Amino acid sequence: MPLIDDRRRVCCASHHREPVEGFTTAGATDHYPPEMGLEPVHTDIDLHIDLEGRACEGTVTVTFKARRDGVCEVTLDAVAFEGVEVVDPEGRSVSFSYDGLKLHAVWLEAATRGEVRRLAIAYKVVKPASGLFFSGPTEAYPQQAWYAATDHETERARHWLPCIDLPNARTKLDFHLRAQSRFTILANGAQVGEESHDDGTKTVHWRLDFPCPSYLVCMAIGDFTRCDDGEFEGLPVAYFASREHTEDDLRRAFGRTKDILAWMTGHLDMAFPFPKYYQFALPGFGGAMENISLVSWDDIFVLDAQLAKEWTWLVDQINVHEMAHSYFGDAVVCRDFAHAWLKESWATYMESCWLEHSKGQDEFRYNLFADAHSYFGEADGSYKRPIVTRTFNPSWDMYDMHLYPGGACRLHTLRKELGDDVFWGGVQAYLKQYKGKVVETDDFRRALEEHSGRSL
Predict the structure, then answer these.
(1) Helix 305-325 crosses helix 341-358 at what angle (to 10 degrees)?
(2) What is the rounded distance in angstroms from the CA atom of residue 340 to the CA atom of residue 306?
(3) Verdict on whether the full-model pTM lies above 0.85
(4) CA nearest neighbour of 340 among 398, 281, 273, 397
């Protein structure tokens, strides 16, 4: 997800350390991935989305696989849910407790290693504080756009979706989303079905057969303008926005997407890993986010003819950034936020590499200079911290200039040290080796060492 700067971009541990002045505050703890004796492997999201009532209601069924013998309990993040009920669809005896923040379920009989268990969680969420955002006409703003859409980074899916809301918990997804028939219904993955109902609603079924962390789960429902842009290597490409924007506006904003896809898949020597490339832009949404196969944008980046003269370059850079996450962050997921540079530094560096390809060495070097300037401004003017650290307050604090341009400059330093052939060959091998898996920094280091024969 891109930061905005003045240049281009609009747990569980008990160890206490001295805070990094300006970065953490007193009491900051070390954060680690959660234990998962019962690992979630699939999530079925069967919800009715009520845009007028700003609510969602239904059942989410989570499938778990036991990683060892004797496990019988799970804890899910679930904030401010109403009317919670939990059952085992196979009829096993299960009890649960819910305190408004965490949902804790316990089976009477423990699972054996490799056994599959399911929990069906029925609930309702009304006007969630975050994660799922609603918009619609009001008396004061009668032209306001209709939509319900999600935006999660870093830990906000929990406000509408029961889940382990941290990166190393990744599940395949099925969505059965019901809303008024007049609305477009989008979600991660490929559309596999649609059913109309007598009450003027419809249910659309989307499926993602790729493990997805909670922060990349995405749906968008609303009254949208749609711009189809054909296919890229058999994958559909399309753009969506609220009705105040036209197809021409969307094409001006995102019409270079297939060119960027062609460059990126070739440069990384890997086919695009997901079944479509859709992007949607909505008013008041903020920034851009790399949700798997369904990238979200604020509609400030949708370009009319006048704005396109000034901002096409900016939209293209952000487009590169979010697309790069399809590889660094989506296909290969950082195991926890301590290693978030493995996605954000990479996405930032790929912006520069796109300029190297499309604009030449001067633009490439100037972009790297601007990255260094942004990083040193924070490091010299505010605080210095390790690029990889487990000690932070909220995980969002990690998303700073150290993580974005600071890490990008370090990647370029590594590239210059190894040389282009060794560096890019090692990166391609790293992506292939860890596709569909979680990684830490040492995994990246070892992949580059194996490819280069160097001690890094």
Answers:
(1) 130
(2) 37
(3) yes
(4) 398
- 230 C-beta neighbours (distance < 10 Å), count: 9
CA distance 223 to 247: 14
Please tell me the distance from the alpha carbon of residue 376 to that of residue 378, in angstroms, as a whole number. Answer: 5
Phi-psi region for residue 258, left (φ > 0), alpha (ψ -120 to 50) or beta?
alpha
Asked if residues 219 and 150 have their Cβ atoms less than 8 Å apart, the reply is yes
**Which residue type sits at 395?**
S
The alpha carbon torsion through 350, 320, 355, 453 (nearest 10 deg) reads: 20
Model confidence pLDDT, tens digit, residues 116-132: 999 999 999 999 999 99
* Pairing status of strand 277-282 against strand 294-298: parallel
Q: What angle do CA 156, 157, 159 make, to 5 degrees?
A: 75
Q: What 3-state DSSP class applies to 204?
A: strand
Which is it for strands 38-50 and 170-180: parallel, antiparallel or unpaired? Answer: parallel
Task: Quote the distance between the C-alpha of residue 438 and its chain's center.
Answer: 14
> Residues 401, 5: contact at Cβ < 8 Å?
yes
